[in-house]
Amino acid sequence: MKPLAAKEVVSLYFLEARAKLLDLAAILDRLDRGGESAQASTQGSNLDVNMAKIQKGLEILEKDGPGRAEAIQKLFSLDYDAKWERPTPRF
Q1: Could you tell me the CA-to-CA distances from 75 to 18, 27, 49, 55, 68 in Å, in that order?
Q2: For residue 82, how many C-alpha atoms fall within 13 Å in the half-sphere facing its CB?
Q3: CA 88, CA 39: separation in Å to the nearest integer?
Q4: What is the mean pLDDT of residues 43-53?
Q5: Using an 8 Å Cβ cutoff, are 60 and 72 in contact?
Q6: Please, which pLDDT band fits residue 91 given cuts at 50, 70 and 90?
Q7: Res 47: pLDDT
Q8: Cβ-contact 56, 75 below 8 angstroms
Q9: Phi, psi of 47 (to 5 degrees)
Q10: What is the SS3 assignment for 6?
């Protein structure tokens, strides 16, 4: 299967990209409105780690070239754990 031309990608996915960028902008605005008190309450917490991942994700998106989706997926994925036990279904 041949990849779509850039012009076709923009035409097909413009509204979806626009909506996702607006959602992200709204979340970042909410963080800004939270002010320093919100940052102080998350220092050293899991929220602090999550905020660092969001920042790193934005840095990944700024880079040119392919591979951004994979890099974002790896950023938010857990490392492989060979000792992980598969959950059993409850019947």
Answers
A1: 23, 19, 12, 11, 10
A2: 0
A3: 39
A4: 81
A5: yes
A6: confident
A7: 79
A8: yes
A9: -65, -35
A10: helix
Determine contact, residues 53/75, Cβ cutoff 8 Å: yes
pLDDT > 80? residue 80: yes
pTM reported for the whole predicted model? 0.72
Contacts of 38 by beta carbon, 8 Å cutoff, 6+ apart: 31
* Tokens linked to 59: 């840095």
What pLDDT does 55 receive?
Answer: 94
- pLDDT of 39 reads 54
Max CA distance (Å), the chain: 51
Helix segments in 3-91, DSSP class H: 6-42, 46-62, 68-75
38 vs 47, 57, 74, CA distance in Å?
A: 10, 20, 27
Give, to the nearest 10 degrees, the angle between helix 6-42 and helix 46-62. Answer: 150
